[in-house]
Amino acid sequence: MAPMGIRLSPLGVAVFCLLGIGVIYHLYAGVISSRIAAFTQKKTVSLRDLLALSVEAAVQGGQEVKRVREDNKLEEKTKGKTKEGASEKLTQGDLNSHRKMYYLIKNTYPYLQVNSEEHDETNNEQGVWNREIPAEILRRVEGSREVPADSITVWIDPLDATQEYTENLLKYVTTMVCVAVNGKPVIGVIHKPFTGITAWALVGEASNMKPHATYNMNSPKVIVSRSHAGKVKGFVEEAFGNSTIILPAGGAGYKVLALLDPIDEETEKADMYIHVTFIKKWDICAGNAMLSALGGHMTTLKGEQIDYSGDFGNKGGLLASIKLDHQALVAKLPAWDSADKH
């Protein structure tokens, strides 16, 4: 007699499958739940580590900027026109610096949002931060404050003042890194490749810079963009009088350093910094953090705080000051409409 086979009804098949799923669930529930917990757990990053990494990135980028200029291999191109109609330069120094800075940060913290002025299609640089923290930062920054990684936006400017770089006006050139937390700038690094000076600040902790001894609000020295100094001159003189001294200069990083000490002898000293046209956030975020750490201010011309978690551009103009009554300065400014200023 042939052996009898076991035949299950459709209902029996369903019950058998459910029993199997139950056994699997009990066997692997612990593993699954631990994996889910690990996946959903928020990553945090040390601000002191990020400060040290930002300094290293700015210095490494600066080395590329300097090398390309000294080798005279700029390979100058144009990215198009700025909103003011000027030609926007791009050099090999910009690109090499971008690769060093961007990938050093992304390879170390791949889950961070990093916004750079430049983009390119080359292969990933392999550099990873060695996690060495400079002695000065260890000495001045106590502890290691952790913040959620998803609250961080990093802004890098691989070569600020590219126009001046092509003209060999090298005192204006900087590389910059800024870290914003929930849109507020908390870490600022401004490096001058051709003098080797690196200014840094961590809001609420320390900075290796300090304000000038005095600032003049009556007949101030106002530093402005050399590319449209004439446009801003009337605006500034209407606010502060005809005795105001206008200092045209290149690079937003340089202009912020002009408000601070100690810096090299070739950097002019200014009482405030004003910008009246559209400007990108990677140009100003590091300077904003630097001033904030020292009790200063950088706002729109209407006195509004600038958010560094949104889009790339600031359309509200710029007023930067330190050790002055910032709101009193804002009140002195003439009426200003961003729609009329590109």
UniProtKB/TrEMBL annotation:
<dbReference type="GO" id="GO:0046872">
    <property type="term" value="F:metal ion binding"/>
</dbReference>
<dbReference type="GO" id="GO:0005794">
    <property type="term" value="C:Golgi apparatus"/>
</dbReference>
<comment type="pathway">
    <text>Polyol metabolism; myo-inositol biosynthesis; myo-inositol from D-glucose 6-phosphate: step 2/2.</text>
</comment>
<dbReference type="InterPro" id="IPR050725">
    <property type="entry name" value="CysQ/Inositol_MonoPase"/>
</dbReference>
<protein>
    <recommendedName>
        <fullName>inositol-phosphate phosphatase</fullName>
        <ecNumber>3.1.3.25</ecNumber>
    </recommendedName>
</protein>
<dbReference type="GO" id="GO:0046854">
    <property type="term" value="P:phosphatidylinositol phosphate biosynthetic process"/>
</dbReference>
<feature type="region of interest" description="Disordered">
    <location>
        <begin position="70"/>
        <end position="91"/>
    </location>
</feature>
<comment type="similarity">
    <text>Belongs to the inositol monophosphatase superfamily.</text>
</comment>
<feature type="compositionally biased region" description="Basic and acidic residues">
    <location>
        <begin position="70"/>
        <end position="87"/>
    </location>
</feature>
<keyword id="KW-0812">Transmembrane</keyword>
<keyword id="KW-1133">Transmembrane helix</keyword>
<dbReference type="GO" id="GO:0016020">
    <property type="term" value="C:membrane"/>
</dbReference>
<dbReference type="Pfam" id="PF00459">
    <property type="entry name" value="Inositol_P"/>
</dbReference>
<keyword id="KW-0472">Membrane</keyword>
<dbReference type="InterPro" id="IPR000760">
    <property type="entry name" value="Inositol_monophosphatase-like"/>
</dbReference>
<feature type="binding site">
    <location>
        <position position="283"/>
    </location>
    <ligand>
        <name>Mg(2+)</name>
    </ligand>
</feature>
<keyword id="KW-0479">Metal-binding</keyword>
<dbReference type="GO" id="GO:0008254">
    <property type="term" value="F:3'-nucleotidase activity"/>
</dbReference>
<dbReference type="GO" id="GO:0052834">
    <property type="term" value="F:inositol monophosphate phosphatase activity"/>
</dbReference>
<keyword id="KW-0460">Magnesium</keyword>
<keyword id="KW-0378">Hydrolase</keyword>
<feature type="binding site">
    <location>
        <position position="160"/>
    </location>
    <ligand>
        <name>Mg(2+)</name>
    </ligand>
</feature>
<feature type="binding site">
    <location>
        <position position="117"/>
    </location>
    <ligand>
        <name>Mg(2+)</name>
    </ligand>
</feature>
<feature type="binding site">
    <location>
        <position position="159"/>
    </location>
    <ligand>
        <name>Mg(2+)</name>
    </ligand>
</feature>
<feature type="binding site">
    <location>
        <position position="157"/>
    </location>
    <ligand>
        <name>Mg(2+)</name>
    </ligand>
</feature>
<dbReference type="InterPro" id="IPR020550">
    <property type="entry name" value="Inositol_monophosphatase_CS"/>
</dbReference>
